[in-house]
Amino acid sequence: MIDLDLEGPGLHVIFGISDGDIRATINDVLQGSIPIRDAVLDLTPRLGIESGCLLFCPAGHRLEEILKMVETGFNLSRFKAVLYNLATEYQLDYLLIDSHPGIEKDTILSMAVCDVVVLLSRVDHQDMFGSGVMNEVASQLRKPVVLILNMIPSSVGEKESKMIGEKIASLFNLQVLTALPFNSDVFENLSRGVFVLEHQKDPLTRKFTAMAENMIAIIEQSREVPETSDNGPTRQAVG
Fold first, then answer.
1. Which of 46, 48, 41 is nearest to 26 (CA)?
2. What is the CATH number of domain 118-222?
3. In the prediction, which pLDDT does 237 show?
4. Separation between Cα atoms, residue 64 and residue 59, nearest integer Å
5. Could you state, in order of their start, the residue ranges of all structural domains in the chain?
6. pLDDT digits (tens, 9 = 90+) for 216-232
7. What CA–CA distance (Å, rounded) separates 200 from 146?
8. In angstroms, rounded to a whole number, what is the distance separating the alpha carbons of residues 18 and 13?
9. Cβ distance 234 to 87 under 8 Å?
10. Is this prediction's pTM over 0.90?
């Protein structure tokens, strides 16, 4: 997983990563000649993952790092090479890229190299409008798009949530992966940890698990038409 929200990185907080744990960030890799392996953190033992592994590339969260990236940015060829090296060196099954919300250069570059674009949206007008714009951009890039509806009000039942999802899917001509209800436990968690690992029996965790399984199926379908890059076949990436 790569934290590519370069203007407001925060995944390191959820994973409990301190500055002392970080040797290099994805900023350093994209803007210099630092190898990607220097920015990779193996979170498998930290999170107690018993099956598979989770590797994480943090983004620079200091103000000077953010301002430098905003000012200079990074180029597409370097970005593609970094992703290819990361995927091949660690033999990744899936590569998840968490990008900045909205139309930003890094977001569009992420969408350009991904096999599947995943949009996360609430059901208010502002979020829906933004999701519509992002869906249009993804369509121009010829990328399959799935939408996750988030923070559905508790007053909305599961049947009604499904109907809302079907209407949005028809409106935007995309697939709605799931509708996640608002959960006060997640809100109170305040990004202090990985919810699904700390609340494994929670109904929302089961919903997340089902969502992940459906997402894997969609990614596997995208492999039927593999894309190639200047560096050879790409691994699967999700934005």
1. 41
2. 3.40.50.300
3. 55
4. 12
5. 1-115+226-239, 118-222
6. 988 888 776 555 445 54
7. 25
8. 8
9. yes
10. no
